Amino acid sequence: MKAKYLIILFCMLACHVNAQQSVTKVSHSKAVKTDVVTTGEVTIKKPDYISISTDGGRDLLLMNGTQFTMTQKGKKHVTDSRKNALFADFHAVLKAVINGQPIPTGNDIKVVTTGGEQTVTITPSGKKRQMFTSFVLVVDSKSSAMKRLRMNGRNNSYTEYLFK
After folding, report:
1. Which tens digit of pLDDT belongs to each residue from 46-95?
2. Which of 157, 154, 50 has its CA nearest to residue 93?
3. Long-range contact list for 15-20, CB < 8 A, 24+ apart?
4. What is the DSSP letter of 34?
5. Is 91 buried (19+), middle (13-18) or exposed (0-12) by CB count in 10 A?
6. Which of 31, 34, 124, 151 could be cross-linked to 86 through a Cys-Cys bond (beta carbons 3.0 to 4.6 Å apart)?
7. pLDDT class for 13, splitting at 50, 70, 90?
8. Residues 87, 79: contact at Cβ < 8 Å?
């Protein structure tokens, strides 16, 4: 009887994937001559949890369900995808990637497949002033592994994560 429960527990843990990988973060600002490069790690859990921690934990990008939290240079920014159209699309795309589902498309989401990669570009159609103007996510077509995430800001600034 105990073996049966152990098997069930193992299956439950296996279905709740917990993946970790290394990441390099590049922060580019038009006002600064050289880019800031830091390293860290990514933790991914099904169905919709991603934590990207860099610079010894000082910078954090966290998606926990519909809530997104970004900490940069000591400043914390929080939004919820239920209230923010750009992050609603971003949440739908990331959740699909994490769970190995087809990437959704729509008016604000464009998917281009080239070779073994899918490039997903999310650009909000509204004129609302936001921290980011668009997101570009590159995913391996076969494994659904994230390769790059670029979050474009205003004035040609961007933050790019390179996943290893």
Report:
1. 999 999 999 988 899 999 999 999 998 889 999 999 988 888 999 999 99
2. 50
3. 15/46, 16/45, 16/46, 17/44, 17/45, 17/46, 17/98, 18/43, 18/44, 18/45, 19/43, 19/44, 19/45, 20/44
4. S
5. buried
6. 124
7. very low
8. yes
